[in-house]
Write a structure and sequence with these properties.
Blueprint (H helix, E strand, L loop, with lengths): L7 E3 L12 H12 L5 E8 L2 E8 L15 E2 L4 H14 L21 E2 L2 E2 L2 H5 L25 H10 L14 H15 L3 H10 L13 H5 L5 E2 L2 E2 L9 H4 L2 E2 L1 H11 L8 H8 L14 E3 L2 E7 L4 E7 L4 E7 L6 H8 L16 H6 L2 E5 L3 E8 L2 E6 L5 E5 L4 E3 L5 E7 L5 E8 L2 E7 L2
Antiparallel strand pairs: 1-3, 2-3, 2-13, 4-9, 5-6, 7-8, 10-11, 11-12, 12-13, 14-15, 14-21, 15-16, 16-17, 17-18, 18-19, 19-20, 20-21
Protein backbone atom coordinates (compact mmCIF):
# COMPACT_ATOMS: atom_id res chain seq x y z
CA UNK A 1 0.00 0.00 0.00
CA UNK A 2 1.29 3.43 -0.92
CA UNK A 3 1.35 5.96 1.93
CA UNK A 4 1.00 9.69 1.42
CA UNK A 5 3.19 11.52 3.92
CA UNK A 6 2.41 15.03 5.04
CA UNK A 7 4.14 17.44 7.41
CA UNK A 8 1.96 18.20 10.42
CA UNK A 9 2.32 20.96 13.00
CA UNK A 10 0.95 19.66 16.28
CA UNK A 11 -0.43 21.75 19.08
CA UNK A 12 1.40 21.85 22.38
CA UNK A 13 1.96 24.38 25.12
CA UNK A 14 3.17 27.78 23.87
CA UNK A 15 2.74 26.63 20.27
CA UNK A 16 2.33 29.11 17.44
CA UNK A 17 0.29 27.60 14.61
CA UNK A 18 1.98 29.89 12.12
CA UNK A 19 5.47 28.61 12.94
CA UNK A 20 7.41 26.97 10.14
CA UNK A 21 10.62 25.05 9.87
CA UNK A 22 12.96 26.48 7.28
CA UNK A 23 11.87 25.34 3.82
CA UNK A 24 15.14 23.55 3.07
CA UNK A 25 14.85 21.45 6.25
CA UNK A 26 11.20 20.63 5.53
CA UNK A 27 12.01 19.53 1.98
CA UNK A 28 14.98 17.49 3.14
CA UNK A 29 12.83 15.64 5.69
CA UNK A 30 10.18 14.96 3.06
CA UNK A 31 12.82 13.49 0.75
CA UNK A 32 14.20 11.23 3.46
CA UNK A 33 10.80 9.75 4.20
CA UNK A 34 9.63 9.53 0.58
CA UNK A 35 12.86 7.77 -0.46
CA UNK A 36 12.45 5.40 2.49
CA UNK A 37 15.66 6.54 4.12
CA UNK A 38 13.65 6.44 7.34
CA UNK A 39 10.00 5.74 8.23
CA UNK A 40 9.69 8.97 10.23
CA UNK A 41 11.34 12.07 11.61
CA UNK A 42 10.05 14.16 14.51
CA UNK A 43 11.52 17.61 15.15
CA UNK A 44 10.99 19.73 18.25
CA UNK A 45 12.32 23.29 18.36
CA UNK A 46 12.50 26.12 20.86
CA UNK A 47 12.82 29.58 19.37
CA UNK A 48 11.68 33.08 20.31
CA UNK A 49 10.34 31.77 23.60
CA UNK A 50 8.02 29.30 21.88
CA UNK A 51 8.15 25.56 21.27
CA UNK A 52 6.99 23.71 18.17
CA UNK A 53 6.72 20.05 17.22
CA UNK A 54 6.75 18.75 13.64
CA UNK A 55 6.16 15.14 12.61
CA UNK A 56 6.63 13.45 9.26
CA UNK A 57 6.07 9.85 8.23
CA UNK A 58 4.77 6.79 10.02
CA UNK A 59 5.89 4.67 12.96
CA UNK A 60 7.03 1.90 10.55
CA UNK A 61 7.55 1.23 6.86
CA UNK A 62 5.03 -1.63 6.93
CA UNK A 63 1.77 -1.15 8.79
CA UNK A 64 2.96 2.00 10.51
CA UNK A 65 0.65 4.24 12.50
CA UNK A 66 0.30 8.02 12.46
CA UNK A 67 2.80 9.88 14.61
CA UNK A 68 2.07 12.24 17.46
CA UNK A 69 4.10 14.46 19.72
CA UNK A 70 3.91 11.59 22.22
CA UNK A 71 5.44 8.94 19.94
CA UNK A 72 8.35 7.39 21.82
CA UNK A 73 11.82 6.90 20.32
CA UNK A 74 15.06 5.46 21.62
CA UNK A 75 17.37 8.44 22.11
CA UNK A 76 20.59 6.42 22.44
CA UNK A 77 23.63 8.36 23.58
CA UNK A 78 21.73 11.53 24.42
CA UNK A 79 21.26 9.44 27.59
CA UNK A 80 24.85 10.42 28.45
CA UNK A 81 23.71 14.01 29.04
CA UNK A 82 21.10 12.68 31.48
CA UNK A 83 23.87 10.77 33.27
CA UNK A 84 26.17 13.78 33.47
CA UNK A 85 23.34 15.80 35.00
CA UNK A 86 22.90 13.21 37.76
CA UNK A 87 26.65 13.25 38.35
CA UNK A 88 26.64 17.05 38.52
CA UNK A 89 23.82 17.02 41.04
CA UNK A 90 25.77 14.54 43.15
CA UNK A 91 28.69 16.99 43.08
CA UNK A 92 26.43 19.90 44.07
CA UNK A 93 25.04 17.84 46.95
CA UNK A 94 28.54 17.01 48.15
CA UNK A 95 28.24 13.27 47.52
CA UNK A 96 30.97 13.23 44.85
CA UNK A 97 33.64 15.56 43.49
CA UNK A 98 34.97 16.11 39.97
CA UNK A 99 38.60 15.27 40.71
CA UNK A 100 38.01 12.34 43.02
CA UNK A 101 39.35 9.02 41.76
CA UNK A 102 36.94 6.28 40.76
CA UNK A 103 38.78 3.92 43.13
CA UNK A 104 37.12 5.68 46.06
CA UNK A 105 33.70 4.44 44.90
CA UNK A 106 34.51 0.93 43.72
CA UNK A 107 33.92 -2.27 45.71
CA UNK A 108 36.94 -3.22 47.82
CA UNK A 109 37.85 -6.21 45.63
CA UNK A 110 38.09 -4.12 42.45
CA UNK A 111 41.24 -2.19 41.58
CA UNK A 112 40.95 0.51 38.95
CA UNK A 113 43.79 0.59 36.42
CA UNK A 114 46.46 3.31 36.53
CA UNK A 115 49.11 4.47 34.08
CA UNK A 116 52.41 6.01 35.16
CA UNK A 117 50.91 6.42 38.61
CA UNK A 118 48.03 8.53 37.30
CA UNK A 119 44.52 7.48 38.35
CA UNK A 120 41.16 7.77 36.61
CA UNK A 121 38.90 10.47 38.06
CA UNK A 122 35.16 10.95 37.80
CA UNK A 123 35.82 13.98 35.56
CA UNK A 124 37.76 11.75 33.18
CA UNK A 125 34.72 9.46 32.88
CA UNK A 126 32.38 12.40 32.21
CA UNK A 127 34.61 13.89 29.47
CA UNK A 128 35.68 10.67 27.67
CA UNK A 129 39.29 11.01 28.78
CA UNK A 130 39.61 8.06 31.14
CA UNK A 131 41.81 5.95 28.86
CA UNK A 132 39.15 3.23 28.99
CA UNK A 133 37.97 1.85 25.63
CA UNK A 134 34.76 2.72 23.84
CA UNK A 135 33.40 -0.72 24.59
CA UNK A 136 34.78 -3.68 26.54
CA UNK A 137 35.63 -6.88 24.70
CA UNK A 138 33.65 -9.13 27.06
CA UNK A 139 30.23 -8.50 25.52
CA UNK A 140 28.38 -9.92 22.53
CA UNK A 141 28.25 -7.38 19.71
CA UNK A 142 26.89 -10.01 17.28
CA UNK A 143 23.53 -9.93 19.06
CA UNK A 144 20.65 -7.78 17.80
CA UNK A 145 20.31 -6.66 21.42
CA UNK A 146 23.98 -6.43 22.43
CA UNK A 147 23.76 -4.70 25.83
CA UNK A 148 20.95 -6.65 27.47
CA UNK A 149 23.08 -9.22 29.32
CA UNK A 150 26.03 -6.97 30.16
CA UNK A 151 25.73 -6.62 33.95
CA UNK A 152 27.72 -5.03 36.77
CA UNK A 153 29.71 -8.21 37.36
CA UNK A 154 31.01 -8.21 33.79
CA UNK A 155 31.70 -4.47 33.92
CA UNK A 156 33.68 -4.64 37.17
CA UNK A 157 35.60 -7.78 36.14
CA UNK A 158 36.64 -6.02 32.94
CA UNK A 159 37.78 -2.92 34.84
CA UNK A 160 39.71 -5.04 37.31
CA UNK A 161 41.68 -6.71 34.53
CA UNK A 162 42.11 -3.82 32.11
CA UNK A 163 45.53 -2.30 31.40
CA UNK A 164 45.59 1.37 30.45
CA UNK A 165 47.76 2.25 27.45
CA UNK A 166 48.01 5.98 28.20
CA UNK A 167 47.63 8.41 31.06
CA UNK A 168 44.07 9.25 32.14
CA UNK A 169 43.16 12.74 30.94
CA UNK A 170 45.70 12.61 28.12
CA UNK A 171 43.38 12.25 25.14
CA UNK A 172 39.74 11.84 24.07
CA UNK A 173 38.20 8.46 23.32
CA UNK A 174 34.41 8.34 23.24
CA UNK A 175 33.39 5.60 25.63
CA UNK A 176 30.06 3.92 26.28
CA UNK A 177 31.84 1.82 28.88
CA UNK A 178 33.14 4.83 30.82
CA UNK A 179 29.72 6.51 30.90
CA UNK A 180 28.10 3.26 32.00
CA UNK A 181 30.63 3.07 34.82
CA UNK A 182 29.96 6.70 35.80
CA UNK A 183 26.21 6.14 36.02
CA UNK A 184 26.75 2.96 38.03
CA UNK A 185 28.92 4.84 40.55
CA UNK A 186 26.48 7.75 40.85
CA UNK A 187 23.54 5.42 41.51
CA UNK A 188 25.68 3.57 44.05
CA UNK A 189 26.26 6.67 46.19
CA UNK A 190 22.50 7.27 46.30
CA UNK A 191 21.85 3.59 47.06
CA UNK A 192 19.24 3.22 44.33
CA UNK A 193 18.96 2.16 40.71
CA UNK A 194 20.10 4.42 37.91
CA UNK A 195 16.62 4.64 36.37
CA UNK A 196 14.93 5.42 39.68
CA UNK A 197 17.54 8.07 40.46
CA UNK A 198 16.90 9.96 37.24
CA UNK A 199 13.16 9.74 37.68
CA UNK A 200 13.30 11.03 41.24
CA UNK A 201 15.72 13.87 40.46
CA UNK A 202 14.62 14.87 36.95
CA UNK A 203 11.78 13.29 35.03
CA UNK A 204 9.12 13.11 37.78
CA UNK A 205 9.64 16.70 39.07
CA UNK A 206 9.68 18.00 35.49
CA UNK A 207 6.72 15.83 34.47
CA UNK A 208 8.67 14.16 31.68
CA UNK A 209 6.15 11.36 31.97
CA UNK A 210 7.11 9.43 28.83
CA UNK A 211 10.87 9.48 29.43
CA UNK A 212 11.77 6.02 30.61
CA UNK A 213 14.00 3.00 30.29
CA UNK A 214 11.45 0.41 31.38
CA UNK A 215 8.40 0.63 29.11
CA UNK A 216 4.87 0.16 30.39
CA UNK A 217 2.45 -1.64 28.05
CA UNK A 218 0.98 1.74 27.07
CA UNK A 219 4.43 3.14 26.33
CA UNK A 220 5.37 0.04 24.35
CA UNK A 221 2.34 0.66 22.14
CA UNK A 222 3.42 4.29 21.69
CA UNK A 223 6.92 3.36 20.48
CA UNK A 224 8.02 3.95 16.92
CA UNK A 225 9.45 0.76 15.44
CA UNK A 226 13.21 0.84 14.91
CA UNK A 227 14.58 0.06 11.44
CA UNK A 228 17.97 -1.10 10.20
CA UNK A 229 18.88 -1.85 6.61
CA UNK A 230 15.33 -0.93 5.60
CA UNK A 231 13.74 -3.56 7.84
CA UNK A 232 12.10 -3.47 11.25
CA UNK A 233 14.44 -4.43 14.08
CA UNK A 234 14.16 -5.09 17.80
CA UNK A 235 14.62 -2.49 20.52
CA UNK A 236 17.87 -2.32 22.44
CA UNK A 237 17.70 -3.12 26.15
CA UNK A 238 20.39 -2.33 28.69
CA UNK A 239 21.59 -3.53 32.05
CA UNK A 240 24.56 -1.80 33.70
CA UNK A 241 25.46 0.23 30.60
CA UNK A 242 22.04 1.95 30.65
CA UNK A 243 23.65 5.34 31.50
CA UNK A 244 25.33 5.27 28.09
CA UNK A 245 22.25 4.86 25.92
CA UNK A 246 19.11 3.27 27.37
CA UNK A 247 16.61 6.12 27.59
CA UNK A 248 13.45 6.42 25.51
CA UNK A 249 11.62 9.71 25.18
CA UNK A 250 9.33 11.91 23.12
CA UNK A 251 9.84 15.22 21.38
CA UNK A 252 7.56 16.94 23.88
CA UNK A 253 9.49 15.56 26.89
CA UNK A 254 12.83 16.47 25.32
CA UNK A 255 11.59 20.03 24.83
CA UNK A 256 11.01 20.18 28.59
CA UNK A 257 14.56 18.97 29.15
CA UNK A 258 15.93 21.60 26.76
CA UNK A 259 13.90 24.40 28.37
CA UNK A 260 15.44 23.41 31.68
CA UNK A 261 18.92 23.53 30.10
CA UNK A 262 18.16 26.98 28.66
CA UNK A 263 16.94 28.42 31.95
CA UNK A 264 13.38 28.85 30.68
CA UNK A 265 11.79 27.06 33.63
CA UNK A 266 12.32 26.91 37.38
CA UNK A 267 14.10 23.84 38.71
CA UNK A 268 16.21 22.83 41.68
CA UNK A 269 18.82 21.51 39.22
CA UNK A 270 20.02 24.95 38.11
CA UNK A 271 23.49 24.69 39.68
CA UNK A 272 23.98 21.16 38.38
CA UNK A 273 22.97 22.29 34.88
CA UNK A 274 25.50 25.12 34.98
CA UNK A 275 28.18 22.64 36.01
CA UNK A 276 27.40 20.37 33.04
CA UNK A 277 27.50 23.32 30.64
CA UNK A 278 30.76 24.77 31.97
CA UNK A 279 33.74 24.03 29.74
CA UNK A 280 35.86 21.40 31.49
CA UNK A 281 38.06 20.53 28.51
CA UNK A 282 39.11 23.23 26.05
CA UNK A 283 40.01 21.22 22.97
CA UNK A 284 39.93 17.96 20.98
CA UNK A 285 36.95 18.27 21.42
CA UNK A 286 35.75 21.04 23.74
CA UNK A 287 33.47 19.54 26.37
CA UNK A 288 31.27 20.24 29.33
CA UNK A 289 30.13 17.26 31.38
CA UNK A 290 28.49 14.92 28.90
CA UNK A 291 27.85 17.80 26.51
CA UNK A 292 30.05 18.34 23.47
CA UNK A 293 30.53 21.81 22.03
CA UNK A 294 30.17 22.67 18.35
CA UNK A 295 31.44 26.25 18.16
CA UNK A 296 29.37 27.70 21.03
CA UNK A 297 26.50 25.20 20.78
CA UNK A 298 25.86 22.36 23.19
CA UNK A 299 25.09 19.11 21.40
CA UNK A 300 24.87 15.37 21.66
CA UNK A 301 23.60 12.76 19.26
CA UNK A 302 22.43 9.22 19.75
CA UNK A 303 21.99 5.94 17.94
CA UNK A 304 20.82 2.43 18.75
CA UNK A 305 20.16 -0.52 16.45
CA UNK A 306 17.19 1.13 14.77
CA UNK A 307 17.05 4.76 15.92
CA UNK A 308 18.99 8.03 15.53
CA UNK A 309 18.66 11.29 17.47
CA UNK A 310 20.21 14.72 17.86
CA UNK A 311 19.89 17.38 20.57
CA UNK A 312 21.46 20.83 20.18
CA UNK A 313 21.18 24.08 22.12
CA UNK A 314 22.33 27.61 21.30
CA UNK A 315 22.34 29.19 24.76
CA UNK A 316 23.28 32.69 23.57
CA UNK A 317 20.37 32.94 21.13
CA UNK A 318 18.00 30.74 23.17
CA UNK A 319 17.38 28.25 20.36
CA UNK A 320 17.23 24.51 20.63
CA UNK A 321 16.34 21.46 18.56
CA UNK A 322 15.61 17.78 19.11
CA UNK A 323 15.46 15.42 16.11
CA UNK A 324 14.17 11.86 16.49
CA UNK A 325 14.16 9.17 13.80
CA UNK A 326 13.51 5.44 13.65
CA UNK A 327 16.22 4.23 11.26
CA UNK A 328 20.01 3.97 11.27
CA UNK A 329 20.43 7.08 9.09
CA UNK A 330 22.10 10.00 10.86
CA UNK A 331 20.04 13.13 11.54
CA UNK A 332 22.94 15.18 12.90
CA UNK A 333 22.99 17.43 9.84
CA UNK A 334 19.37 18.49 10.40
CA UNK A 335 20.09 19.62 13.94
CA UNK A 336 23.39 21.28 13.10
CA UNK A 337 21.92 23.07 10.07
CA UNK A 338 19.12 24.50 12.21
CA UNK A 339 21.72 25.94 14.59
CA UNK A 340 24.23 26.94 11.89
CA UNK A 341 23.03 27.36 8.30
CA UNK A 342 26.60 26.93 6.99
CA UNK A 343 26.36 23.21 7.88
CA UNK A 344 24.95 21.52 4.76
CA UNK A 345 21.98 19.19 4.80
CA UNK A 346 22.72 15.68 3.57
CA UNK A 347 20.43 14.73 0.73
CA UNK A 348 19.14 11.15 0.86
CA UNK A 349 20.32 8.87 -1.91
CA UNK A 350 18.31 6.18 -3.73
CA UNK A 351 19.66 2.64 -3.31
CA UNK A 352 20.09 0.30 -6.27
CA UNK A 353 20.52 -3.48 -6.36
CA UNK A 354 23.95 -4.82 -7.31
CA UNK A 355 24.58 -8.37 -8.47
CA UNK A 356 25.95 -10.58 -5.71
CA UNK A 357 28.88 -11.71 -7.87
CA UNK A 358 30.02 -8.10 -8.19
CA UNK A 359 29.77 -7.63 -4.42
CA UNK A 360 31.88 -10.75 -3.85
CA UNK A 361 34.62 -9.20 -5.99
CA UNK A 362 34.96 -6.47 -3.36
CA UNK A 363 35.50 -8.87 -0.44
CA UNK A 364 38.87 -8.69 1.28
CA UNK A 365 41.24 -6.70 3.44
CA UNK A 366 42.34 -3.24 2.36
CA UNK A 367 45.18 -1.26 3.95
CA UNK A 368 44.00 2.28 4.70
CA UNK A 369 46.96 4.68 4.46
CA UNK A 370 49.18 1.70 5.27
CA UNK A 371 48.07 1.87 8.90
CA UNK A 372 44.57 0.46 9.46
CA UNK A 373 42.97 -2.63 7.94
CA UNK A 374 39.61 -2.08 6.26
CA UNK A 375 37.64 -5.34 5.96
CA UNK A 376 34.96 -5.62 3.26
CA UNK A 377 32.63 -8.61 3.45
CA UNK A 378 29.05 -9.76 2.87
CA UNK A 379 26.23 -10.52 5.25
CA UNK A 380 22.80 -11.83 4.30
CA UNK A 381 21.48 -8.30 3.80
CA UNK A 382 24.37 -6.88 1.78
CA UNK A 383 27.90 -5.52 1.76
CA UNK A 384 29.61 -4.37 4.98
CA UNK A 385 32.79 -2.53 5.88
CA UNK A 386 34.70 -2.59 9.14
CA UNK A 387 37.76 -0.62 10.17
CA UNK A 388 39.98 -2.43 12.68
CA UNK A 389 38.75 -1.80 16.21
CA UNK A 390 35.43 -0.28 15.11
CA UNK A 391 31.88 -1.47 14.56
CA UNK A 392 30.83 -2.83 11.18
CA UNK A 393 28.63 -0.67 8.96
CA UNK A 394 26.48 -1.47 5.96
CA UNK A 395 27.45 -0.11 2.54
CA UNK A 396 24.50 0.99 0.38
CA UNK A 397 24.97 1.01 -3.38
CA UNK A 398 24.22 4.03 -5.56
CA UNK A 399 26.06 2.39 -8.50
CA UNK A 400 27.98 -0.81 -9.15
CA UNK A 401 31.16 0.75 -7.78
CA UNK A 402 29.99 3.56 -5.50
CA UNK A 403 28.56 2.95 -2.03
CA UNK A 404 27.52 5.18 0.86
CA UNK A 405 26.97 4.92 4.61
CA UNK A 406 23.86 6.03 6.42
CA UNK A 407 25.27 6.25 9.93
CA UNK A 408 27.69 9.02 8.91
CA UNK A 409 28.27 11.15 5.82
CA UNK A 410 30.87 8.95 4.11
CA UNK A 411 31.23 7.07 0.82
CA UNK A 412 33.32 4.21 -0.54
CA UNK A 413 34.29 3.73 -4.19
CA UNK A 414 35.93 0.58 -5.59
CA UNK A 415 38.48 0.57 -8.43
CA UNK A 416 39.87 -2.14 -10.73
CA UNK A 417 43.29 -2.45 -12.35
CA UNK A 418 44.04 -2.91 -16.04
CA UNK A 419 43.23 -6.64 -15.93
CA UNK A 420 39.87 -6.10 -14.22
CA UNK A 421 40.83 -7.09 -10.66
CA UNK A 422 39.63 -4.98 -7.72
CA UNK A 423 42.82 -3.19 -6.66
CA UNK A 424 41.84 -0.52 -4.15
CA UNK A 425 39.07 1.62 -2.72
CA UNK A 426 38.73 5.30 -1.85
CA UNK A 427 37.03 6.39 1.40
CA UNK A 428 35.47 9.83 1.09
CA UNK A 429 34.75 11.55 4.41
CA UNK A 430 35.04 15.03 5.92
CA UNK A 431 36.31 16.46 2.63
CA UNK A 432 39.17 13.96 2.48
CA UNK A 433 39.94 11.09 0.10
CA UNK A 434 41.77 8.16 1.67
CA UNK A 435 43.08 5.34 -0.48
CA UNK A 436 43.03 1.77 0.79
CA UNK A 437 45.03 -0.81 -1.21
CA UNK A 438 43.78 -4.36 -1.38
CA UNK A 439 46.03 -6.75 0.54
CA UNK A 440 44.78 -10.12 -0.73
Amino acid sequence: MKHIYTLMILSCSALSASAQLEEDITKNIENRVNLKDTPSIVVGIIENGEQHVYVHGKTAFEGGQDLSQETIYEIGSISKVFTSLLFSQAVIEGKMSLDETIQAYLPAHITAPQHNGKEITLLHLATHRSGLPGMPDNYDWSSNNPYIFYDDSLMLDYLNGYTLTRNPGESYEYSNYATGLLGYLVAKVYDTTYENLFKSKVSVPLRMTETTITLSPTQQAAMALGHANGKATSNWDFDVLAPAGAWRSTAIDMLVFMKMQMGLMETNLTEAIKLTQAIHVESNPKMGLGWHYYNDFLWHNGGTGGFRSFCGIDLENQRGIIVLSNSESSVDDIGLHFLDESVPLVEPKPVIDVDEDILKDYHGLYSLSGIVDFNIYNREDGLYGQLAGQDAFKLYSSSKTFFFLKVVDAQVEFFRNEVGEVSHLILYQNGMEQKAVRKD
